[in-house]
Design brief:
Helix content: 55-70%
Strand order of the largest sheet: 2-1-3-4-5
Radius of gyration: 18 Å
Largest sheet: 5 strands, parallel
Order of helices and strands: HHHHEHEHEHEHEH
Strand content: 5-15%
Shape: elongated
């Protein structure tokens, strides 16, 4: 693959040029480029968008737009991935806003970003009780659990959820990340989670690192 052509797709995604991305994906498919390779290039672009967000060079609207572009690319490639080169998700993720909290904007952004980056994400919604998280982890053999909350009252729900996963004997197979506006390192320690993030870019970075460690 010509590095310049790879850079064109990355630049189109980072530049939020939805039309250019669609044209390039169609061109690559017509040239016989493996769909899995296209996905990998898109993941790299998504990581760059996340880095720009962390540096204050991109904002929530850009994250949402990039996520939507990636969703469209995934939909276009899905038939090819199913019939051609098989695509293995980085990891199965269960995500939800914990019991007692019904805020979903932050959760939805993270779910979109993770899905676009190649993770197999199940969104459990809001006000999710610990037992629902446990059931989903068991059903999907999820390697990552994401707990979201916007209210400080959600801290105890997060803690209860981690304890429920532990009691179910599933703690050894999954890692727990928590996120939301009030989350800090101290809250992470209180909840006994494995990691925390204050935004979608941080969640993506953590998930990619954990998935990479699991594959080694």
């Amino acid at each position: 693959m010509d590095p310049a052509k790879r850079s064109d797709l990355v630049a189109a995604i980072v530049g939020m040029d939805e039309e250019a991305v669609a044209v390039l994906v169609e061109q690559w498919l017509s040239e016989g480029v493996a769909p899995a390779f296209i996905i990998d290039v898109c993941r790299g672009a998504m990581s760059e968008v996340g880095a720009r967000f962390e540096a204050g060079e991109a904002f929530i609207p850009e994250l949402i737009m990039a996520g939507e572009i990636m969703r469209q690319v995934s939909l276009r490639l899905k038939p090819h991935l199913l019939t051609g080169v098989p695509h293995k998700s980085l990891s199965s993720v269960v995500f939800g806003t914990v019991k007692g909290d019904v805020h979903d904007i932050g959760k939805d952004i993270v779910v979109t970003i993770l899905d676009a980056a190649g993770f197999d994400v199940e969104d459990l919604g809001v006000d999710v009780p610990p037992e629902r998280f446990v059931a989903a982890v068991r059903e999907r053999a999820a390697g990552i659990v994401g707990l979201s909350c916007l209210l400080t009252t959600g801290f105890d729900s997060m803690k209860a959820t981690v304890e429920a996963i532990e009691s179910a004997g599933l703690r050894g197979q999954t890692r727990v990340m928590i996120g939301g506006a009030p989350i800090t390192a101290r809250v992470c320690a209180y909840v006994a989670a494995d990691g925390w993030g204050s935004d979608a870019a941080a969640a993506l970075t953590i998930a990619q690192r954990w998935a990479g460690e699991a594959e080694r």
